[in-house]
Amino acid sequence: MNQNIQIFKDLPELSLAAAKLFVDSAAQAITARGRFLTALSGGGTPKPLYELLARLPYRNQIDWSKVHVFWGDERCVSRDDPGNNYYQAKQSLFDHVSLPADNIHRIVSELEPEDAAKDYARVLENFAETPYEWPRFDLVLLGMGDDGHTASLFPGSQVDVTSPTIAVTANYQDRPAKRVSLTPLVFNTARRVVFLAVGKSKAETLANILNGEYHPELLPAQRIRPTDGDLIWLVDEAAADKL
Ligand code: 6PG
User: Fold this and answer.
1) 68 Cβ contact partners less than 8 Å away, ≥ 6 residues apart
2) What is the pLDDT of residues 179-199, one digit of tens each?
């Protein structure tokens, strides 16, 4: 695993770097394998990135016909609920670029989490790369909660999960509690994982994750360690304050 930490003044600067990374990752994957498989995250931090990708010059630097979009996690509310991760990406990105509808592989958030998790495992199988039952994502975007969660892998949840998707119930900042998440099995076979984290409320947790002891049960973001890929942290100065 190659780990790399980049610190930016603020979220706008971080988002510009993330947009360039997204464009470069897409170009590399399309040249090498003819398509770009990416898993998006929810939360507030990636929204400016999605808005940048929807605009020039980035919009025209990506061959959207070869992009396939998935999610690292989803909140089980309707697809037009502002708390839905698919809805956020649709509003800020998909509505503005020529991404074919067939290339959007959303988690069916209207289902109960157990059913949605099983359904998503089948979706992943369609893109599986041997020997796995899921794709090796070219780029996974992840966020980090103040409590150290990532995707919907929360503190206290089972560390050694053997399925690619799980159903989750979690209370965090009044956000929808019923969720579906990919698991470290999938994240850790990605070719590149990029965390986006900003704000001083994350500073202590970020320092514990990056510089503290390995406590994956308490700090789920530590469970993300791609075995044959890059791990990149894009953080702002406030979040990096205690590093
Ligand atoms: C979700 C997430 C979640 C998110 C973090 C950070 O759907 O809730 O994917 O893991 O990335 O909670 O959220 P912020 O970016 O809003 O801090």
Assistant:
1) 35, 36, 37, 38, 103, 105, 127
2) 999 999 999 999 999 999 999
